[in-house]
Amino acid sequence: MGAAQRHHRAGGAHAARSTSGAWGTGGSVNVLVVYGGESDEHDVSVASGEDVLASLRSSGDIDVTAALIDRDGRWHRTGEGTSAGAAARDVLDDLEPGTVIFPVLHGGWGEGGGLQREVEHRDLGLVGCGSDAAATALSKLQTQRVWAQAGLDVIPTLPVARTEFAADAAAVVRRVRQALPGDIVVKPDSGGSSIGVHMVSAGDEPLPALADVLARDETALVQPRVIGREVSIGVWQDATGTPRATAASLLQLPADAEAGGFTYAHKYEGAGGVLLIPAGLPQLAALQRAALQAFDALGCRDLARVDFFVTSDGAFVLNEINTMPGLRRASHFPRLVAAAGIDYDTLLRSLVAAALVRDSARLT
């Protein structure tokens, strides 16, 4: 399509049109599931992408193809008789107009607005956030600033730039410890899946944690450790485009995680983290309202998981948002939505339908 492609700026969070009848009478719908990617969360994305593909392929009226992005950023159209890699733009340019892109990608270019911007410049549908919301939400620091401006409670955060650390690491450590002398958390600004997150006790040196995080990301975030329970609320948009909040999940941690944090191993390698869904919490209604506010403040769309800390006195504070949460059939977000009565296959189909409605509205 090249220069003749229509520019598309994705709409906001409240596309108040029904997804009923989105398939119309025109037969099957074309969907490209994109998964893998260059980020540290490549393997998590692959696991999610494979389950999404299996689910959508089980439907008789969705024509599903796949693009696996390798760790070098090359796209592979799996199942089409070739293993040769291609550039993103070449793959997207070859798609039929109206194809829905389902980006099951975590972190980096694929979740942070790069892919979304490429899709928005073509006659293609898109599941999930538009490019502006995706870019903001991928940065934990920018997300916190937006939430604070919306009047939501966030964790005090000290950012450390890679350039600042490289210039004078000792001065950075002094500044960190002057501002935050107690137990701290050091984590990447744009990372996910608990990769690169460090718990540093009050008496320990934060230099190694900062060095590790800044090898992964241009910005490290340093926060006081919040002693509280980790609680999550899912948000998804129903058939009218209205955001709905799920019940809560409560993370029950093994003893080692209490001291060292909830790690990638606890999430994905069977190291003992257990999610209680639904969790009976007296703050549920307030948590749901805050999750919807957080979703709306960022201009999110379709789906997200909002994470909180709930302290012993019953107060809570926002931690992070994930605008493309893990989508394995047994993942956290699908389980939250299932507790609201929406099964996995129905959830994925509704996300595709919502993208179709937006795309058809844009072209009329």
Automatic annotation (TrEMBL):
Residues 144-353 form the ATP-grasp domain. The active site is at residues 41, 193, 331. The keyword rRNA processing does not apply. The keyword Nucleotidyltransferase does not apply. Mg(2+) 1 binds at residues 307, 320. Residues 1-11 have a biased composition (Basic residues). Pathway: Cell wall biogenesis; peptidoglycan biosynthesis. Its main location: cytoplasm. One of its GO terms (cellular component) is cytoplasm. Coiled coil: none annotated. Residues 1-21 are annotated as: Disordered. Gene3D superfamilies: 3.40.50.20, ATP-grasp fold, A domain (3.30.1490.20), ATP-grasp fold, B domain (3.30.470.20). It is found in: Cytoplasm. It catalyses: 2 D-alanine + ATP = D-alanyl-D-alanine + ADP + phosphate + H(+). Keywords: ATP-binding, Cell shape, Cell wall biogenesis/degradation, Cytoplasm, Ligase, Magnesium, Manganese, Metal-binding, Nucleotide-binding, Peptidoglycan synthesis. Binds 2 magnesium or manganese ions per subunit. Mg(2+) 2 binds at residues 320, 322. It holds the Pfam family Dala_Dala_lig_N. It is an enzyme of class 6 (ligase). Its EC number is 6.3.2.4. One of its GO terms (biological process) is peptidoglycan biosynthetic process. One of its GO terms (molecular function) is D-alanine-D-alanine ligase activity. Its cofactor is Mg(2+); Mn(2+). Belongs to the D-alanine--D-alanine ligase family. Cell wall formation. This is D-alanine--D-alanine ligase. The gene is ddl.
